[in-house]
Design a protein that fits this description.
Blueprint lengths: L1 E3 L13 E5 L5 H5 L17 E3 L15 H8 L15 E10 L4 H6 L4 E7 L4 H11 L8 E5 L10 E4 L6 H4 L7 E2 L15 E6 L5 E11 L9 E6 L9 H8 L2
Parallel strand pairs: 7-8
Antiparallel strand pairs: 1-2, 2-3, 4-5, 4-10, 5-11, 6-7, 6-9, 9-10
Length: 253
């Protein structure tokens, strides 16, 4: 028995190994269907004719039968390396409260508490959370923003800062302890947040709107739907810019 690699024309190919049977006693009719293998292509100077065992060709749409061993190997074949199964994302419920900002006294008296409850997936970023807070408080003019996680007060030097990336050295020039990390790359699920944690959110570095963000709950998996989304509103949204002239006029007797 000689093993060669040939195609239908008798030329050698490298795609798969086909078994050939060498039998010098075959009939003339059978020999006419054989492929004459050149002497130099054989292993050894055999100089005989070899007849291919014709493989059964399946019709279009049909699959060739698999041996039990091949079927077992295919069934037990491990997943491709580098493609791990994706776990479902957690669902974070956050309460965002306005801590301070340029609010008129009349508005502050009428709305002593202003909060928004937001649900967001763990595989979404702080940049998406910023966009949700921006819309939840009905703001319409974008400004710089920053999340401060791990501190106990605004501008705590121990806090990790996430926002828009700064030019190299810019944060140190302002006296900040560390440069700001990209909020667009920081997913909630990698921040190490736990239920009960509170972190800061600073919007508009000129008017200084300070917020607290409290983690109310973390569900094991997020249901189907669009996130982030606002689930509860307490208090009216303060105007982003107060008309102080009008406010002073109303306070005059």
């Amino acid at each position: 028995m000689i093993k060669l690699k040939v195609d239908e024309e008798g030329a050698r190919v490298a795609e798969e190994e086909v078994e050939y049977v060498v039998n010098a006693d075959r009939s003339v009719k059978a020999a006419q269907d054989c492929i004459r293998v050149p002497l130099e292509s054989l292993v050894g100077a055999q100089g005989r004719r070899s007849c291919p065992r014709k493989a059964r060709r399946s019709k279009r749409g049909e699959s060739s039968p698999m041996s039990p061993r091949a079927r077992s190997q295919r069934k037990n074949r491990p997943m491709r390396p580098g493609v791990p199964a994706k776990d479902p994302a957690h669902l974070y419920t956050l309460e965002v409260a306005i801590l301070s900002g340029p609010m008129a006294e009349g508005f502050a008296r009428a709305n002593p508490v202003v909060t928004r409850t937001i649900e967001i997936r763990g595989d979404q970023t702080l940049a998406r959370l910023h966009a949700a807070i921006f819309a939840a408080f009905d703001r319409d003019d974008e400004h710089l923003y920053e999340f401060q996680i791990g501190g106990r007060r605004p501008m705590d030097p121990r806090a990790a800062r996430y926002g828009l990336p700064e030019p190299r050295g810019f944060g140190f020039a302002l006296g900040a302890p560390d440069p700001v990390k990209s909020a667009a790359r920081a997913k909630l699920e990698v921040l190490g947040l736990e239920v009960g944690d509170t972190f800061g959110y600073w919007f508009d570095f000129g008017d200084d709107w300070w917020h607290t963000v409290k983690v109310l709950s973390i569900a094991e998996s997020a249901p189907a739907g669009r996130f982030p989304r606002v689930t509860e509103r307490i208090g009216e949204s303060p105007p982003q810019y107060v008309d102080w002239d009008e406010e002073e006029h109303e306070e005059d007797p």
